[in-house]
Amino acid sequence: PLPSGRDSYRRLSDYNDDLDRLASLRPGLVKKFALNHRSLEGKPVYGVEIAHDVTAAEDGRPVFLMMGLHHAREWPSGEHAIEFAYDLVENYGTDERITALLKKARVLVVPVVNVDGFEKSVNDGQLIDLRAIDGGGTGSILATPGNAYKRKNCRIVDGLTPLANECALASSPGGFGAGIDLNRNYGGFWGGPGAAAEPADATYRGPAPFSEPETQNIRELISTRQVTGLITNHTFSNLVLRPNGVAPDTVGPDGLPVGNPPDEAALKELGDRMAQQNGYTSQHSWELYDTTGTTEDWSYNATGGFGYTFEIGPDEFHPPFPEVVDEYLGSGQYAGKGNREAFLLALESAVDPESHSVISG
Ligand code: 0X9
Ligand code: ZN
């Protein structure tokens, strides 16, 4: 079973309850925190910090950041993030490797970055399930069961009709309708290729970098902590993606080719090792397709902390839950190929960021 014992997808309230539970289970090890900004609908966004003596004053320990659910429909991305938190908490004190890691580093887990979008997606997804069981159901909402496949946040954007702007009724499977794509709204290469300028588009970048409270939250978290490594989870395609999101010959805002990251060798080395654990393909992000304004393209280029996107699962945004379990643990049809071990490698690397510069010379 998963570290938490869950056997079905969490809703937003389940995430919040579980973060509370983790903190009250081990108060010296886990501290719940709210990010700086509430969502557009006024919801708080929470995370947990996990570390030996977590309440000790800042002591220079490096920080590893694990995130999920920038994209509303990608439910496993939040599940794997919070299960990693459970895993660390349950194994601290008994598992030597995890105990040592939590003495050397602090781990931040923010499982649901896009709280508004996720709530619409997961609630609607479960509504659809119920109606299907009910024999097909009735009514017009069923004709457009798009909220389960909502991608973006809940920003009201110009140029859309009020109906299309209604967050809870707005997203086709292509992710159209209300909202800004939070994985195009960061400041890394913002304004470049692979992000849309049109509000109705699934990859709408927003009117300016960091225009959204959700991306401001992550920027401010990273800017105020010593984040030496991060994973931002998405679904799907079984990929470990490393910066950059655009090919080296792409001309950047300064009129010069953006090139490869200075740490390419070390970024690749860790990406490849993680991919050996989860069985994914390790590649440059741009080999999937061009993107700009993504989480780790900003964080890596702004701070030097290593950042990766995991695209969890072979072929579905939110598959039946047993697959999510196997993909975390490396059990069942995913025997020996779980994200748990890949996450631990990322944490180990974040604990020892010096190794990066050594490897890349
Ligand atoms: O397009 C995206 O944002 C990601 N794929 S998803 O299906 N989860 O939407 C891929 C982003 C890849 N690029 C970078 N991480 N830079
Ligand atoms: Zn995604």
TrEMBL record:
GO terms for biological process: proteolysis. GO terms for molecular function: metallocarboxypeptidase activity; zinc ion binding. The keyword ATP-binding does not apply. Its EC number is 3.4.17.18. The keyword Zinc applies. GO terms for cellular component: extracellular space. Keywords: Carboxypeptidase, Hydrolase, Metalloprotease, Protease, Signal, Zinc. Residues 8-336 form the Peptidase M14 domain. The active site is at E311 (proton donor/acceptor). Its cofactor is Zn(2+). Belongs to the peptidase M14 family. This is Carboxypeptidase T. It comes from Streptomyces jeddahensis.
